[in-house]
Amino acid sequence: MEATAIQRFVRITPRKCNQILGLIRGLDAEQALVTLKFTPKNGARIIEKVLASAIANAKHTRQARTENLYVKEARVGAGPTMKRWLPRAQGRATPILKRTSHVSVTVATKE
């Protein structure tokens, strides 16, 4: 039995987010929450909320116990990129790409 939580249009690059998701893939849900709590990255707060939501979805819809859950799948995809311009010398401009992500976390019960 599985439960999923998705956070879309998060203002963090997919590359940075994927590094943090690599820390929790395959871990028990409680251990993953502790790992994210003590990870000194801003993206860890976002992923912690998504994981907590997936756990709550499993408990509410599937009546699963927290100690029986593990992170089955944690993935990130690229969202739309906001394009901005930075003025430079002699009338030039440099593009600034503000990337967004779609974060998905799936928890499942241990069999």
From TrEMBL:
One of its GO terms (cellular component) is cytosolic large ribosomal subunit. InterPro entries: Ribosomal_uL22 (IPR001063), Ribosomal_uL22_bac/chlpt-type (IPR005727), Ribosomal_uL22_bac/org-type (IPR047867), Ribosomal_uL22_CS (IPR018260), Ribosomal_uL22_sf (IPR036394). One of its GO terms (biological process) is translation. The keyword Cytoplasm does not apply. The globular domain of the protein is located near the polypeptide exit tunnel on the outside of the subunit, while an extended beta-hairpin is found that lines the wall of the exit tunnel in the center of the 70S ribosome. Part of the 50S ribosomal subunit. This is Large ribosomal subunit protein uL22. It comes from Eiseniibacteriota bacterium. The gene is rplV.
